[in-house]
Amino acid sequence: KAGVTQTPRYLIKTRGQQVTLSCSPISGHRSVSWYQQTPGQGLQFLFEYFSETQRNKGNFPGRFSGRQFSNSRSEMNVSTLELGDSALYLCASSSGLQGRGSSYTFGSGTRLTVV
Amino acid sequence: AQSVTQLGSHVSVSEGALVLLRCNYSSSVPPYLFWYVQYPNQGLQLLLKYTSAATLVKGINGFEAEFKKSETSFHLTKPSAHMSDAAEYFCAVSESGNKLVFGAGTILRVKS
C-alpha cells in the first residue's frame, strides 16, 4: 500500500512569510503527527491529530498550527517565518490506537529553508 | 517526562564487524521503545519496536535489540556491518498520547 506522502519536498521562503505543508497518511490510518528536525535540536514533536482533533501538542509557539481533514490528510502551517524555522518537517502516520505501542510510519519530509 | 540518551554521536566500524549502538531510556512506566534509521535526505524508517512481548526484538536488515529493564537500556546490534548500513540511527520512547521522544541520534560510518 502507498506510504506517507509529504508535499512539497523542498521549500524556500522569506522571513515573515507563512507556509503550509501537507501530509497524506497511509490509507486507513487516522493519526498524523508532525515533527521538526534540526541539527541543533534534533527531532522534536510538534503536534498530533486524530480524527480531525488535535490530541497532543509539543512545546512550540503559536505560529505553528495544524489541522486534519475528514480524509485524515493533514496540513501544518507556520506563520511569520523566522530563520530558525529552517528544518526538515516530518509527518508520521499511525492507526492512532490509544496506548504507546502504535507503529509510526514516516514520510520523506519537507525541507524548509527560510532566507 | 520520559527521555532517551544515545551514547556516541558517531560510531565507526569496519565492514563485517559487529555494530553496537547504545540507547538508554528514562521512564517511570513500562516503555515502548523504537529504533529508526534515516538515510540522507530521507524520512525515518522503522527498524524494530519493543512492546513488552519479548525482550529480544528482531528487526529488518539483520538488526536486533535487547530490552534490559535493570539497565534501562535498549541497545541495537547487528553481527556483521554492511556498507549500506551507513546512516543515522535514532532510538525513541513512546509517551502517552502517541508521541515519540527521540534521542539525539548516532551516525554510523562503515569502513571498507
Describe the structure.
The complex is a heterodimer of chains A (115) and B (112). Chain A has no helices and 11 strands. In chain A, the strands form 2 sheets. In chain A, strands 2, 4, 5, 6, 9, 10 and 11 form a 7-stranded mixed beta sheet that branches. A 4-stranded antiparallel beta sheet of chain A has the order 1-3-8-7, with no helix packed on it. In chain A, a hairpin with a 3-residue loop joins strand 4 and strand 5. Chain A is globular and about 40 Å long. Chain B is mostly beta strands and 112 residues long. Chain B is built from no helices and 11 strands. At the A-B interface, strand 4, strand 5, strand 9 and strand 10 of A face strand 4, strand 5, strand 9 and strand 10 of B.
The portion of residues forming beta strands of chain B comes to over 45%
Number of helices of chain B: 0
The tally of beta strands of chain B, per DSSP, is 11
- The radius of gyration computed from the alpha-carbon positions of chain B, rounded to a whole number of angstroms, is 13 Å
What is the average of the pLDDT values of chain A?
Answer: 93
Question: How can the largest sheet of chain A be summarized?
Answer: 7 strands, mixed
Which terms would index this structure?
heterodimer; A: 115 residues; mainly beta; seven-stranded mixed sheet; four-stranded antiparallel sheet; 11 strands; 0% helix; B: 112 residues; five-stranded antiparallel sheet; globular
Topology at a glance:
The complex is a heterodimer of chains A (115) and B (112).
Chain A: E1 5-7, E2 10-13, E3 19-24, E4 31-38, E5 42-50, E6 53-57, E7 64-68, E8 74-78, E9 87-94, E10 105-106, E11 110-114
Parallel strand pairs in A: 2-11
Antiparallel strand pairs in A: 1-3, 3-8, 4-5, 4-9, 5-6, 7-8, 9-10, 9-11
Chain B: E1 3-7, E2 10-14, E3 19-26, E4 32-38, E5 44-50, E6 56-58, E7 64-68, E8 73-78, E9 87-95, E10 99-102, E11 106-111
Parallel strand pairs in B: 2-11
Antiparallel strand pairs in B: 1-3, 3-8, 4-5, 4-9, 6-7, 7-8, 9-10, 9-11
